[in-house]
Amino acid sequence: MADSKKKRGAADRALIALSESYEVAYWSKKFKVTPAKLKAAVKKVGHSAKKVEAYFGEQRHKAADRARIAVSQPYEVRYWSNKFKVTPARLKAAVAEVGHSSKKVGAYLAKKTMKKKAAQKPVKKTAAKRKAA
Q: What superkingdom does the record give (predicted)?
């Protein structure tokens, strides 16, 4: 479907038209990626500029230094919450407690999980201990 050059409203600005070379050039420059990467991203997440931008943000995160957790970035909170299998609130509390280091947060959450599992295990008494008691 060809893009109408006379329509430049919000609906047109929110979509990426791969059929128009000037749009591919514009969005490639805006997101600082090659046209091939832009086309692959659009194919994967759709023509929405917001979705493509979020996709590139997550891709950059994966390539960036993973030693630091930035709780100000929603995609980082989502990533680390999934990685540590905790809620975003628990992740933010752990970061507030031990700092932004992913190693420290991982160790802190593992310790908390171990304490929680130990508290949940019922203590089984053997027959010999029951007779002695």
A: Bacteria
